[in-house]
Design a protein that fits this description.
The protein is of the alpha+beta class. It is built from two helices and nine strands. The chain has two domains: 28 residues; 95 residues, Jelly Rolls (Sandwich), CATH 2.60.120.10. Helix content is 19%, strand content 39%. The strands form two sheets. Strands 1-2-9-4-7 form a five-stranded antiparallel sheet, with no helix packed on it. A four-stranded antiparallel sheet has the order 3-8-5-6, with no helix packed on it. The protein is globular, with a radius of gyration of 19 Å. About 11% of the residues have low confidence.
Length: 140
């Protein structure tokens, strides 16, 4: 086998490995603040946390995104569906004042099933970003 053919095959294999790695890399993490700027207002952005007011209209659906470890406080009654990219679906109904602290969240999108806007205060901790493929078993 000539050196040129061997080099071509090695480069081709390297490109395939890099393409595969990029599909599973945590670099796919997409901050909600970046993917859905039309649904959120940044209230504070520091070196360790970002606080945002999230408002999703009736029937609204976010883009796929992840969350760092975060705190959520529902400002309005909530009826949403969260669909994860791995196929898991969770539906949540709760009153205004519902709150929770959650670990980093894998890729998902959210749909507002309510007849009115849903509004959340979300505070994400930058020190604890979504880091990859581990499945978070925390139910919302």
């Amino acid at each position: 086998m000539s050196t040129q053919i061997h080099l071509f095959r090695s480069i081709k294999l390297l490109c395939l490995i890099i393409a595969w790695w990029l599909t599973i890399s945590p670099a796919q993490a997409q901050s909600f603040a970046e993917t859905d700027a039309n649904y959120n207002i940044i209230l504070a952005d520091t070196s360790f946390a970002v606080a945002m007011m999230v408002t999703v209209p009736p029937g609204g659906k976010t883009n796929v995104h992840t969350h760092a470890a975060h705190f959520v406080y529902a400002m309005t009654p909530v009826h949403i569906r969260v669909t994860y990219t791995d196929g898991e679906v969770q539906e949540l109904k709760g009153p205004a004042g519902f709150s929770g602290i959650f670990p980093p969240e894998r890729p998902h999108y959210m749909e507002n099933l309510a007849a009115s806007d849903v509004r959340f205060l979300v505070v994400e901790m930058k020190e604890h970003p979504y880091g990859g493929r581990k499945k978070n078993k925390t139910k919302i």
